[in-house]
């Protein structure tokens, strides 16, 4: 059984906070490639920052997400991803028109159920790593919400509830025999 679970959706929708909650419960997590890339780029030359070169940023995210996905196969239980390969390939395909989404996503499948955080303006904030506005976040969310079903994933919308309740919701949606 595939135990690599994607949590995707709207920027600023609570994904990172949710992953911290799941980690506190003992589950393996994979932090968002985008945030890790921004952190690395801010310490270096900044050539692949999303506000400098979004295509270079997306290509780096694809490389990182592919490595993350491969490493997660070694984990004994559930591994929860804050975004992943599909988000990165969807971004690259949107930006360049390169038909990479179906090829890469077919080679690197996640658990069939993907959880999406909806736009949540009450908790949305920008920060040094998230400089885009809420409207851009919603547009990205709309693209992702349309892409996942076309790739054969069952999309489950996360309710706008407290983080502990969101974690319980996700765990209740997954098969119990593998938890």
TrEMBL record:
Transmembrane segments: none annotated. Residues 5-166 form the NadR/Ttd14 AAA domain. SUPFAM superfamilies: P-loop containing nucleoside triphosphate hydrolases (SSF52540). InterPro entries: NadR/Ttd14_AAA_dom (IPR038727), P-loop_NTPase (IPR027417). It holds the Pfam family AAA_28. This is Putative ATPase. The lineage of its organism: Bacteria, Pseudomonadati, Pseudomonadota, Alphaproteobacteria, Hyphomicrobiales.
